[in-house]
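Lab channel / #folding
Pinned by the channel admin:
"Please post every new chain as: sequence first, then the structure tokens as a reply. Keep commentary short and put observations after the output so the thread stays searchable."

First post following the new format, from NK:
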Amino acid sequence: MAKHPVDIAPSESRDAFSRAVERRLARMRRVARLCSALGAALLLALALVGIGSSVVPRVMGMQPYAIISGSMEPAYPTGSLVYADPVDGVALQVGDVAAFWQGEEVIIHRVEAIDGDAGELVTKGDANEDVDLRPVPFQNVLGRVVFSMPLVGYFLMALGSTAGMLLLGWAVLMAVALCVVGTVVGHLAENREAGR
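Reply from TO:
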């Protein structure tokens, strides 16, 4: 007995529909995993940079400073973040890189000479040809640079501006939104799959 074409078509169309639904659900699950992974990675990166560049060094007693000029290149390129261990000016030696006040600015330069009688340091930027015009009194010394991280200083410099704070807020909101979208799409895919 031969099958009538009408009897075959509904079964085949249901199989095609089921395959299409399964492909759509698989795509939704991939999108959900991708959104969740991107959001989590962005939040993790922001947390690591923020905590690693600011909180951890301070807990260890160091103070971070961003390099904003090229005077210490190539040792500390512009945008680097350097960490200074607090020391008295008298504890520094020739060749140490010192963080010190000069007027209203913090300067990071290398110690070229020490005048113990006058209580002053002669400093110079590695990229500069001449020593600094004004000697640095010991009491202006903030510390000795012990560690640096290239490019991270740009992050901290940006946070000092309104635009940087807005950008950081936007990045956090986008990361959270990606995580939420991933969770919602994942739940939708599960619910549709359970309802089939």
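NK: Residues 5-59 form the longest helix (55 residues).
TO: also worth noting, The mean pLDDT is 86.
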